[in-house]
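Dear Dr. V.,

Thank you for agreeing to look over these. As mentioned in my earlier message, I'm a first-year student in the group and I'm still getting used to reading structure tokens, so any feedback on how I've presented them would be very welcome. I ran two proteins. I've put each sequence directly above its structure. The first is here:
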Amino acid sequence: MNYHFFDYKHNIVGFTSDFLCTEHIVFIALAYVLTFALCYAFRKAKHERIGIGLKVLSLVMAALEITKITWESYYDVTIGGGFNWGGLLPLYTCSLFIYALLVAAWTRGKAREYCLSFICTINLLYGAVGVVYCNGLNYYPFWTFGAFYSMFFHTTMFATGVFLLATGYKKLEWRDSLRAMAPVLLLAAVAIPVNTALGSDYMMIYSGGGVPLYEDLASALAEKGLRFVYTIIMLLTHIPLACLVIGVYKLIARVGKRTNPEAEELLPED
């Protein structure tokens, strides 16, 4: 092994990818199994205690993100590249988990409800996908900080959303698909001018980096001077994704109600 746990990707010689390696497959299984085991074990947890847990988790996730940015920036600067403005700012859609969690944990009112809607829909789905399609493993070996951070972050995104739904802390309604868009649009208001200025691709709303279909669409529209149309399309795709999660949630809740009529009703009245 020609690297250590906290080594940086540019210092790891000869590495290609650990994506879907044996360890990653085992991790995927454990992430899903432990998430649902956690939900079952604490399904009757009091909402006051869950609120305290959210406060603690929000501070932990913010601290970890700051640590990750500091760690990566140290290497970027020391190897002469400088701070990575085009790729290291917390302006990705997944970064919204940190901001939404802080708002949901420490505030009340509509802002809190909109952030809970995001955490339990778009965020939950992105976390579930991120556990399987862990892009960090294309840059870092499995047994490194870079890989572990990516896997832990996305697992926590997924587990938090599922836990809040399983405990009834958040009950989804169809209109939550629109509520969840409020945090997305707020972050986009920052990401769009940053992408334009730096040629970066935060939130994948500039060039669809990493997703062939999005890349082709963005490129085709950019050639016609219509890159803004791609940005709009990319942002609007979050609504059906949120609806997908809500639909699955309602289906599970209805099946659970039929199999156990005495269980507490999870479905809100639409």
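The second protein is here, in the same arrangement:
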Amino acid sequence: MPAGGSDSNFLKSDITSSNRVKLSRPIDVKTALFAVIGDPVAHSLSPVMHNTSFAHSSYNGVYVALRVTDPAGAVAGIRALGLAGASVTIPHKNAVVDYLDRLDPAAEAIGAVNTIVNQDGILIGYNTDGSGAVRALTEKTSLKRKCVTVIGAGGAAHAIGYAVAEQGAQVTIANRSAVRGKSLAGDLGANFMLLKEFTGDSCDVLINTTPAGMYPDTDVTPIDEAVLRPDMVVMDAVYNPLVTRLLRAAGRTGCITVSGADMFVYQGAAQFELWTGRPAPVNVMRMAVLSAL
């Protein structure tokens, strides 16, 4: 079956047997090694997503999670050991930038990297968070000339704010801290407001990039749910739980909702394509994540 096909029975069989497939594949000197580096990483679903995609695509690769407290040492290790690539998660997305050889334009503009590609010994940094979010959003709505409010001022807010602005959206950063929020808004050429001042007026698309509502604090929401309107598109970058309190409230209000799991899968699909040069089996990756959740 072609990658990205719709045979759900095949996909379910492929996913549930993925561990057996991975163990039966030969691991040899030609096996490409990948890792996610961060602290913490025990919760990461990237290994199951990428190992399943490698197995499905008959790609000779293995992906592991590595808890890292020394980003400089980790990048030196990637170089010395010849890892084919890596994912970078919190808190190292900014720190690794200084130790790479090159950055793609998006990663350079954002100042953060979530993907490293080892190209014949040259380590190149990319950021697929923003493109993953845009791909998930544009399945539901156009972003051109839309008013997009991004909640938060961290690395995810920067990547997503940059990417949606590139699509022609007018971005507003809404954050609890004025100092960080104004700084990010200045970098993006965006508007700024304190989060407590957000009323939903003139907001076409609302995106939460904070951990509010993430497991185990699932009863938390970043905003007063009364500000939601039926004509909004609401996306939550949190993917565990799949349906956060914010998305539940948005659904009850009649908003179009976008799951953080979609963003996670699409950023992972972009990584797969950068590493392998092959089309990503997006549906297989989605089934792996949903099954794990």
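From my reading of the second output: The chain has eleven helices and twelve strands. The two ends are 25 Å apart (CA to CA). Does that match how you would interpret it?

Kind regards,
E.
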